[in-house]
Design goal:
Strand content: 15-25%
Radius of gyration: 21 Å
Number of helices: 11
Number of strands: 17
Shape: globular
């Protein structure tokens, strides 16, 4: 059987006694001049994935992610500082014109930050658009942010598509990957970014930048757009700065020695262990894992890094055609995406595995940081309903919680003690 690193009880008790005051002493501050590497890594060390925490869909017959109050409690109980993937669209773009949807997101941001103003929220600009973007009028500020003349019109789906037909209808009919070299795509992304900033988001995940940059190998389109995006953020975020990251299979977004991103991110890439049913491990060089491959450069904030810091997470990307099979050559642990594999494990194994993963990353690449799973979509079969992993401690306030919350807190507390 695999062994997982577990800390002695005495160390844990010391951490519990010390953690609160120490966390408060470490101010997580940044401003229009940027963010220092220590402050950034402090955020990354307290990062969680809380898929669509800010999304309260007024069109849904039932809330897609209920138990918001328990989620707020969890954020403060953990001491989470970076709330990843808190809001985004993957289709259904017309909801962004709904006042209740926008107001509910703003309310949740304010409620969390009233208790802890250091918490920042991340929205995502993903590699997907649907024809529903045609229903959304373009606000004047989006044109102005790109130095374009203001027009009275809606977004145009067709003008976001690659002119050679690359990745058109990639996801399904009428659901495509937008091309960053198209002006309409940049206009759409500026609208999304500005809308999320107005809600209170100060970090943006740019999704699969290699897909969106299908015609941008030199990153010219991305570079031009991100300069304008950062300029807009200076006047429309609390800290006058926006933290940018993306999935970087090539190791980063570096142009002339300068990183376009504040940090990189990628899935964990968990490898099946055939001789131990359902178990998975991390391994340097497995498929396209980012460990040891994050490119260096000058960060947007001005500091220099031999290797840019990065987040790794339990990603969700769908079920394979061989569920339950331990194929050690693919990115699907035991035939499932990472969070769906994790969801199916016994509670003790899940909690021990997080301890193992956190310790493994720390010992193999200090530039890496484990983004803890709190809320994420699970896919167990193509015809089965989509479930959700919830790290919350199971209670009347969150009956579908999976009791991972306290383990996450303990891991962070122990790490905090070691860093003293």
């Amino acid at each position: 059987m695999l062994s997982f690193t577990q800390r002695p009880a005495a160390m844990l008790l010391a951490a519990l006694a010390f953690y609160g005051s120490n966390a408060r002493a470490q101010k997580l501050t940044f401003n229009e001049k940027g963010i220092s590497r220590p402050v950034l890594e402090n955020y990354l060390n307290h990062a969680v994935t809380m898929t669509e925490f800010l999304a309260v869909d007024p069109y849904a017959s039932d809330a897609p992610y209920p138990h918001k109050e328990d989620d707020i409690r969890l954020i403060h109980h953990l001491g989470a500082k970076f709330i990843g993937r808190a809001i985004y669209r993957w289709g259904g773009e017309s909801v962004l014109t709904n006042k209740d949807y926008l107001d509910n997101a703003r309310r949740l941001v304010k409620e969390v930050q009233q208790n802890d103003p250091e918490v920042i929220f991340q929205a995502a600009l993903f590699e997907q658009i649907s024809e529903q973007v045609n229903t959304i009028p373009i606000p004047g500020w989006a044109f102005k942010a790109l130095s374009l003349p203001v027009e009275n019109r809606h977004f145009r789906y067709q003008e976001m598509l690659n002119l050679k037909g690359k990745l058109v209808d990639h996801w399904s009919k009428g659901n495509s990957v937008p091309d960053i070299t198209r002006q309409e795509t940049q206009l759409w992304f500026m609208f999304l970014a500005g809308t999320y900033m107005e809600m209170g988001c100060e970090a943006l995940h740019l999704g699969q930048i290699a897909l969106i940059g299908m015609e941008d190998p030199a990153l010219t389109g991305w570079s031009t757009f991100l300069v304008k995006l950062r300029a807009y953020a200076k006047d429309h975020t609390r800290h006058h700065w926006v933290l940018l990251d993306a999935h970087t299979p090539s190791g980063g977004m570096v142009v002339n020695g300068k990183s376009l991103l504040d940090f990189n991110s990628f899935p964990l890439r968990i490898k099946s262990v055939p001789e131990h049913p359902q178990q998975g491990i991390l391994q340097m060089g497995f498929t396209d894992a980012l460990f040891g491959r994050s490119h260096g450069g000058i960060a947007p904030s001005g500091w220099k890094a031999a290797s840019m810091p990065y987040l790794v997470e339990l990603d969700n990307f769908g079920i394979s055609n061989h569920p339950g099979v331990p194929d050690t050559t693919t990115i699907y642990p035991w035939g499932f995406d990472e969070i769906s594999w994790f969801y199916q494990q016994p509670e003790q194994y899940r909690n021990n595995w997080l301890r193992y993963a956190h310790a493994w990353i720390a010992s193999h690449d200090t530039n890496g940081h484990l983004q803890m799973p709190v809320t994420r979509v699970v896919t167990l079969g193509r015809k089965m309903p989509r479930l959700k992993f919830r790290a919350n401690t199971r209670s009347e306030n969150c009956p579908d919680g999976m009791n991972t919350e306290n383990t996450i807190k303990e891991i962070w507390q122990e790490a905090n003690v070691k860093q003293r």
